[in-house]
Structures are given as structure tokens and as C-alpha cells.
């Protein structure tokens, strides 16, 4: 047999192998193309949510879609989505034929100005954003990851409530979310934005978060809606009156701020986020600011009126002390007699609590005490130093306050300050009377540095009231009472008695306040303070 004939079978075998290889390669290429096409098709379906018609309806109401909201909230290109293809598993009431990828909530993580946050955004175009078992599981996964990895959680709420077709499974899903909100509390900041309806059990998850923002005219929060209220109590009320943004920012204080549209609300969340640490493991953020730490504000020297009963705007003090005059106020529409919010001093994020003489003369009452107490506790939980600006004539008198429990509510603020271990600096600008002086971060409840302006008056009460009590027997003699009042003023209508006893660390000139406050916080940056061993305290709720 010739050599050529001998090699023929081998050559045929090789050609067969090559042919099979080419066939397999072609099949693999086609298969990969099919998988990629299928993947892209499924992604497109998921991105459409409930479909274009429902998206158009969402837009017609002035609302963005769940994904569009995340585009505004997060840095461009930073969003990483989880569980895009998760679908509901209910088979009752015809639900077996209604599987929509994502099941009504978009979840994942992204960044805001380069800092990480976990997010979920409910999609009203899918079953009205209603919460199912799988919908809840997606949110729970994000909450667990946020706590585990030490990053804030931001929830964009737009939901019709529990998915009725799932019954108790949906209720169980809510409870799982609630439990995680409690575990996350004080561990990572939690921010809720109400961007549509939020009713029934759905309201309790946002209620346990640290901040709630709402959108005017399109967002609502209530435990029972207008129809139920009418049936049970015969009250006729609109959804806006019952649970709109105005109601919850002004009356109930459930919400911290309200904005005109989705975009404005989301941009304000970005602004708030910049003041907060990522978790309780970290200190408050420091940002480079274009402002001189030793800047003097000469106008502060003449800000306090000569007449002690004449009001002035404490906001002017705050903005003149703050870096670049920037202040982020929280709960502006509620309890205006006290101001709370965030500013920066030499780049350091600082929480501010300040009496406002323009409203109720700056008195503490039920609403202002609750408002400030919760804010103080938030700042303490997340290592944000506290600046307290004091001009308080006392607690607001009256039967409404006493019947409403001012004793217990006032104690909340006292308790919050006393338990706080973050750096605490206090500046008394004018009045600091009675028990309210003690409550407003006095040296006695362990504020670290206490300053006063020369205009400060630290006493049990105002000179006139004190004189009329001490010299009650002389009330018929106007000249004597006038002299006694002048004597009392000379003795107590100044900061020096308190300074002599060490209750005030220094009496400073108003124009130097910014410099002195920055230096005070600088000395406290490594403060360490611990209390007695306990499971937890029992704040007077």
C-alpha cells in the first residue's frame, strides 16, 4: 500500500474533526448570541416596569418613575441594581399570569458625591407599587447589606400598600421590613422620601427612619384613608387635609420637609446626605470650605436689642457663624420657636439647636421639646457634634401645655442632652431662665464648653417677675419695686455670676464667636465619654 493511501483515513478523520469543531463553534456562537439577546430583552422588560402606558400616566401626574428618581438621586453611572429579575410568586386571584420582573421595587446601591448608599425605589406602575412577599424580600436584602457594610439606606416610597391578593404573606413582608428598620436605627442613617401614596402599615417603615421628605400635592401618609375616616367617624376630609405634605410638616411633625416636585426633593436628599456620616462607625464628615475660620462678624455685636423683650432673628446668628453662610434647616414649618439643622464650622458637620426669639419669645413647649430631642439623639447616635444657641425665657405656661404633658415632653429634651456623649458646645446669646436654662445644654448636664455673650442673662426668671415674688409685701410702692427690680437686674441680668461659679467657661464678644466655637470643637475632636453599663436607657416617651 502506498504512503498516500495509508494517510487517507487519517486525513479524513482530521477533516471530520475540524468540521465538527466548526459546527460546535457556530452553535456556541449562536447560543451565546441568543442568551445575550434574551438577557437584553429581559432587561428591557424590567426597565419598562408596568409598561409605557402606566409610565405615561405617572408622568401626567407630575411624577418621575422609580428608575428616573434614582437617576436624579445618585451620581451618574453609579447605580448597581440587584434582583432585577425577581418576580412575585402568588398564584391566587389570577396573579399567576401577571409576573412582572422586579415586582414593583428597584433595589441596589450607588453613590452620592462619591459616597456609598443603598437604595430602594418603589415602582407605582407595577401593581400600584403594592408590597408583596418578594417585594419585601428585595427591600430586606438592601437593609441587611446597609447595616452589614456600614452605609445609609434611602427609600423612595410610592406604594398603594399591602398587596391584597397575597394576604398575610404581604403583612409578614411588612413586619420583616419594620424589624430591620429597628435594627438599622442608630447603626446607619435612614432617609425616607414619600413620593406618592403611603397608607396603612406602609407608613410605619418611614416613621422609624431618621428623616422623612415629602412632595407637595402628590404624596400622602395616613394609617386610614379618607373613606375609612368618613365611615367610622363621619368626618369628611380630603387626602391632602388628612395626610398631605402640609399636614405632616406643620401639624403632626411626621415629615421633616416638603418640596414642590420629585426633582427638588431628591436634590435636597443629596444635600442632606453630605452632612451625615455613612454609619455610626464613622465620625461626622469634614469637607473643604472656602471660608476663614477666624472670620469676624462685627454686625453680631449690635444684633441683640437694648430692650430685653424685643425679638431678633436667631437665623441671622446661625448663618453668620456657619461656613459660607450655609444652613440646612430641618422641620422648618413645625415648632418655629426652636431651630434645628446642620451647618459646617471649618468644614466640620455640626448639628445646631437654637431658640428662636421671633416665635413665642423662644419659649420651650411640647412641640419644640419633642422636635429638638429627637434631633439631639440623632446627632449623638451618628457622632455629629452639637452646637446649642440659647435665648430661652422658660417653658411656655398654660393649661394646654400642662394637660398635654409638658413635664414629660420637656424631660425628653433634657434626657437627650444629658445622655449625649458627642462634643457639645453652648452659646448663650441673651436669656437663659429657670429650668429651661438647665435643659438647653447647660454645664450641669455635661455640655463640654459653655460660652456667653455680654448680653446674656442667666437667672431663675426675669427681673420683674422675680422682684414681685421676693418683695411681694412692697407691691403697693411702685418706686420701691422699681428700685428692687433695678437691683435684681444689676445682680443677675448678666453672665458674670454664672461665670464666677464656673458654669460659663468664658464671656466672649459676639464678633469673635465663629473663631471661638471652631476652636472649642477642635479641642473636642477626640472626646471619649462612657456611661454606666446598662442594656439601654428608658427615655420618657
Chart the SSEs and their pairings.
Layout: H1 3-48, H2 52-60, H3 66-73, E1 80-82, E2 105-112, E3 115-122, H4 133-149, E4 153-157, H5 168-184, E5 190-194, E6 197-199, H6 204-207, E7 211-215, E8 220-222, H7 226-233, H8 239-243, H9 245-251, E9 257-259, H10 262-273, H11 314-321, E10 327-330, E11 338-345, E12 348-355, H12 366-381, E13 386-392, H13 399-404, H14 406-419, E14 424-433, H15 434-439, E15 449-452, E16 457-459, H16 463-470, H17 478-492, H18 496-500, E17 506-507, H19 513-523
Parallel strand pairs: 3-4, 4-5, 5-7, 6-8, 7-9, 12-13, 13-14, 14-15, 14-16, 15-17
Antiparallel strand pairs: 1-2, 2-3, 10-11, 11-12
Helix pairs in contact: 4-5, 12-14, 16-17
**What radius of gyration results from the CA coordinates?**
31 Å
| Inertia-based shape | elongated
Structural class designation: alpha/beta
Largest sheet: 8 strands, mixed
Q: Per DSSP, what share of the residues sits in E-state strands of 2 or more residues?
A: 15-25%
Helix content: 40-55%
Describe this structure in words.
This protein has 541 residues and is of the alpha/beta class. The protein folds into two domains: 47-273, Alpha-Beta Complex (2-enoyl-CoA Hydratase, Chain A, domain 1), CATH 3.90.226.10; 298-456 and 494-523, 2-enoyl-CoA Hydratase, Chain A, domain 1. 41% of the residues lie in helices and 16% in strands. The chain has 19 helices and 17 strands. Strands 10, 11, 12, 13, 14, 15, 16 and 17 form an eight-stranded mixed beta sheet that branches. A seven-stranded mixed beta sheet has the order 1-2-3-4-5-7-9, sandwiched between helices. A two-stranded parallel ribbon has the order 6-8. Helix 4 links the parallel strand 3 (115-122) and strand 4. The termini are far apart. The model has no long low-confidence stretch (mean pLDDT 90).
Amino acid at each position: 500500500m502506498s504512503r498516500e493511501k495509508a494517510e487517507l483515513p487519517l486525513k479524513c478523520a482530521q477533516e471530520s474533526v475540524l468540521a465538527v469543531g466548526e459546527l460546535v463553534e457556530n452553535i456556541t456562537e449562536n447560543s451565546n448570541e441568543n442568551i445575550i439577546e434574551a438577557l437584553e430583552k429581559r432587561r428591557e422588560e424590567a426597565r419598562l416596569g408596568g409598561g409605557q402606558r402606566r409610565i405615561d400616566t405617572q408622568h401626567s401626574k407630575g411624577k418621575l418613575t422609580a428608575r428616573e428618581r434614582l437617576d436624579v438621586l445618585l451620581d451618574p453611572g453609579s447605580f448597581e441594581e440587584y434582583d432585577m429579575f425577581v418576580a412575585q410568586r402568588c398564584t391566587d386571584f389570577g396573579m399567576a399570569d401577571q409576573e412582572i420582573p422586579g415586582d414593583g421595587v428597584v433595589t441596589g446601591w450607588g453613590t452620592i458625591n462619591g459616597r456609598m448608599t443603598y437604595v430602594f425605589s418603589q415602582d407605582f406602575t407595577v401593581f400600584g407599587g403594592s408590597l408583596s412577599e418578594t417585594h419585601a424580600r428585595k427591600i430586606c436584602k438592601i437593609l441587611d447589606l446597609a447595616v452589614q457594610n456600614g452605609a445609609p439606606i434611602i427609600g423612595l416610597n410610592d406604594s398603594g400598600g399591602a398587596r391584597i391578593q397575597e394576604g398575610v404573606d404581604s403583612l409578614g413582608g411588612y413586619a420583616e421590613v419594620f424589624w430591620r428598620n429597628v435594627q438599622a436605627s442608630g447603626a446607619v442613617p435612614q432617609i425616607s422620601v414619600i413620593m406618592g401614596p403611603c397608607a396603612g402599615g406602609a407608613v410605619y417603615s418611614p416613621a422609624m427612619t431618621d428623616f422623612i421628605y415629602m412632595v407637595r400635592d402628590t404624596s400622602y401618609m395616613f394609617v386610614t384613608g379618607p373613606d375609612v375616616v368618613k365611615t367610622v367617624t363621619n368626618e369628611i376630609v380630603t387626602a391632602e387635609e388628612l395626610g398631605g405634605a402640609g399636614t405632616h410638616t406643620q401639624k403632626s411633625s411626621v415629615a421633616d420637609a416638603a418640596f414642590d416636585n420629585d426633582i427638588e426633593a431628591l436634590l435636597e436628599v443629596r444635600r442632606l446626605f453630605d452632612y451625615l456620616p455613612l454609619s455610626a462607625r464613622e465620625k461626622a464628615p469634614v469637607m473643604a470650605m472656602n471660608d476663614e475660620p477666624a472670620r469676624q462678624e462685627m454686625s453680631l455685636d449690635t444684633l441683640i436689642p437694648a430692650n430685653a423683650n424685643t425679638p431678633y432673628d436667631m437665623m441671622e446668628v446661625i448663618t453668620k457663624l456657619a461656613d459660607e453662610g450655609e444652613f440646612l434647616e430641618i422641620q422648618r414649618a413645625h415648632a418655629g420657636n426652636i431651630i434645628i439643622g446642620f451647618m459646617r464650622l471649618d468644614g466640620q458637620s455640626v448639628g445646631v439647636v437654637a431658640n428662636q426669639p421671633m416665635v413665642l419669645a423662644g419659649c420651650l413647649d411640647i412641640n419644640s421639646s419633642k422636635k429638638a430631642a429627637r434631633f439631639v439623639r440623632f446627632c449623638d447616635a451618628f457622632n455629629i457634634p452639637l452646637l446649642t444657641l440659647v435665648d430661652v425665657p422658660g417653658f411656655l405656661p398654660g393649661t394646654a401645655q400642662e394637660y398635654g404633658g409638658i413635664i414629660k415632653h420637656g424631660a425628653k429634651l433634657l434626657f437627650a442632652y444629658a445622655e449625649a456623649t458627642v462634643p457639645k458646645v453652648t452659646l448663650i446669646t441673651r436669656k437663659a431662665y429657670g429650668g429651661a436654662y438647665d435643659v438647653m445644654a447647660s454645664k450641669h448636664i455635661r455640655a463640654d464648653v459653655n460660652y456667653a455673650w455680654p448680653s446674656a442673662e442667666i437667672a431663675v426668671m426675669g427681673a420683674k417677675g422675680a422682684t414681685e415674688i421676693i418683695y411681694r409685701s412692697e407691691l403697693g410702692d411702685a418706686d420701691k419695686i422699681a428700685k428692687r427690680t433695678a437691683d435684681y437686674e444689676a445682680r443677675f441680668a448678666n453672665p458674670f455670676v454664672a461665670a464666677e461659679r464656673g458654669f460659663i467657661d468664658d464671656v466672649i464678644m459676639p464678633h469673635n464667636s465663629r473663631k471661638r466655637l471652631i476652636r472649642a470643637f477642635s479641642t473636642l475632636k477626640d472626646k471619649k465619654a462612657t456611661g454606666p453599663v446598662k442594656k439601654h436607657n428608658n427615655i420618657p416617651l
